[in-house]
Amino acid sequence: MQQEVIIVGGGMVGLSLALMLAKQNIAVKLLEAIKYPNYDDVNLAPYHSSFDARNTALSRRSVHIYQDLSLWETLQPYATPIYEVNITEQGGFGKARLLAQQEKVESFGQVIENAWLGRVLLTEVRKNPLIELIDGVQVTHLSQDDSRVTIKAEQGEQAIALQANLLIAADGRDSFCRQALGIGADVHDYDQVAIVTTVQTSKPHGHVGFERFSPLGPLALLPLPGEYRRSVVWPVKKGTEHEWLGSENDQHFLDALQQTYGDRAGKFEKTGQRFSYPLSQVLAHKQAVGRVVLMGNAAHTIHPVAGQGFNLCLRDAHVLVRYLVEQRDQQADLGDPNMLLAYEAARLKDQKRVITFCDSVVKGFSNQNPLLKFARNTGLLAFDLIPGIKPLVASYAMGLKA
Ligand SMILES: Cc1cc2nc3c(=O)[nH]c(=O)nc-3n(C[C@H](O)[C@H](O)[C@H](O)COP(=O)(O)OP(=O)(O)OC[C@H]3O[C@@H](n4cnc5c(N)ncnc54)[C@H](O)[C@@H]3O)c2cc1C
């Protein structure tokens, strides 16, 4: 008997999960609020809330997931590997340096342009006969009983009603589905917005990623395809973003980067348009209720400081697919509430580790007290000198240890 699976939310997580399920011959309906653009031309995808100006540092594990989906060859032209990571603090003496060669791995991961990743995922979803994509449709009602989940949605003037054995809610940080189920969430506003853009520097990036903690906020500079292009993610205090956005502030922004980084990247020559993203941590109290499971940002939205959010979501999705394949092979119910609870329990350890790590990095480096700063820099030095720590941290960051 054909079992119905619905995914609500076609962001990067919903699209990736739909492809993972289809690869296992599990058919799925994917509902997305935004009307996707058509790609009749060779240009990159126009702006979409999920396929945006950002770049994503994909861990090695995430790259493996896309290799398994036979997508990596198409993604690769807009991705670039990271061979080295440098962590420093402005005005501090400590420095930690991680080298892929030393850790005996080909790279720490790949930085990919979201616009390209989104476009490739969407094109694959559209081609896949096991995925029914319904876009431009807003889910407005969700209820469930012992045997079915029912949703209602609006597509323009039209009302749609659908039922499923399993509903996967990948509808983002402010998840409608989470709220409709009455699932609470711990919300922590970091009082920061991330300023995101692409810059050009006079020195080639050499595939080095920098994380530099500065009084303005932790600044990440990652290599991009093209020797001199780098991705910038700079979380700054909420309310100060007007200082950095807009073409009239281009030079001011480049000067601030130069001052914060010194000449490690050479001269900051050009900047693209800057975009801002408010930053908060949102952790759902439960991820599985009855026949509904939360995925992606709907389950946990975290600070982008270490580029772990999407990687964590992909690992969740990968494990959920494993549970669903097992159910299917045993001809069991794909929406079995106990199976979904078992999935949630299996994911908690990895999720807690990543969430705690990212949150403590943000909080640990935001205090400018000189004593704390000294302790932090001693920590960075120790990290650089004590044998055995680096391989462990590197393998966590690459998503190889979960
Ligand atoms: C500045 C920044 C940089 C980042 N960098 C990295 C990085 O380098 N590495 C990394 O691993 N992670 C990174 N992340 C995290 C990553 O971006 C997120 O984890 C990821 O985008 C989550 O995707 P999602 O599909 O769960 O959510 P979303 O992208 O929010 O998608 C949710 C989708 O659901 C749809 N939707 C919502 N409500 C409804 C409804 N009622 N009906 C139908 N559809 C609905 C929305 O339209 C949307 O398309 C970064 C985050 C930020 C803010």
Draw up the topology in text.
Elements lengths: L4 E4 L3 H12 L4 E5 L22 E5 H9 L3 H4 L3 E3 L2 E6 L5 E5 L9 E5 H14 L3 E5 L2 E7 L4 E7 L2 E7 L1 E4 L6 H5 L4 E17 L6 E7 L2 E7 L5 E9 L12 H12 L6 E4 L3 E10 L3 E2 L2 E3 L5 E2 L7 H21 L7 H28 L5 H16 L3 H9 L5
Parallel strand pairs: 1-2, 1-12, 2-8, 5-14, 12-20
Antiparallel strand pairs: 3-7, 4-7, 5-6, 9-10, 10-11, 13-16, 13-17, 13-18, 14-15, 15-16, 18-21, 19-20
Helix pairs in contact: 1-4, 1-7, 7-8
The structure holds flavin-adenine dinucleotide (FAD).
Mean pLDDT, rounded to whole units? Answer: 88
- What is the 3D form? globular
Bound molecule types: flavin-adenine dinucleotide
What's the level 1 CATH class of the largest domain?
Answer: Alpha Beta
Strand content: 25-35%
Low-confidence spans: pLDDT under 50, at least 5 residues?
Answer: none
Estimated radius of gyration: 21 Å
Structure explained in plain terms:
There is one protein chain. The protein has 10 helices and 21 strands. A hairpin with a 5-residue loop joins strand 5 and strand 6 (95-99). Strands 5, 6, 13, 14, 15, 16, 17, 18 and 21 form a 9-stranded mixed beta sheet that branches. Strands 8-2-1-12-20-19 form a 6-stranded mixed beta sheet. The protein has a 3-stranded antiparallel beta sheet with strand order 3-7-4. The model has no long low-confidence stretch (mean pLDDT 88). It has 2 domains: 5-54 and 115-187 and 282-361, 3-Layer(bba) Sandwich (FAD/NAD(P)-binding domain); 73-113 and 190-279 and 372-397, 2-Layer Sandwich (D-Amino Acid Oxidase, Chain A, domain 2). It is of the alpha+beta class. Helix content is 32%, strand content 31%. It has helices at 12-23, 60-68, 72-75, 114-127, 176-180, 250-261, 309-329, 337-364, 370-385, 389-397, and strands at 5-8, 28-32, 55-59, 79-81, 84-89, 95-99, 109-113, 131-135, 138-144, 149-155, 158-164, 166-169, 185-201, 208-214, 217-223, 229-237, 268-271, 275-284, 288-289, 292-294, 300-301. Bound molecules: flavin-adenine dinucleotide. Residues 8-14, 31-34, 49-50, 54, 56-57, 138-139, 170-173, 176, 194, 196, 233, 277, 296-297, 304, 307-311, 313 line the site of flavin-adenine dinucleotide (FAD).
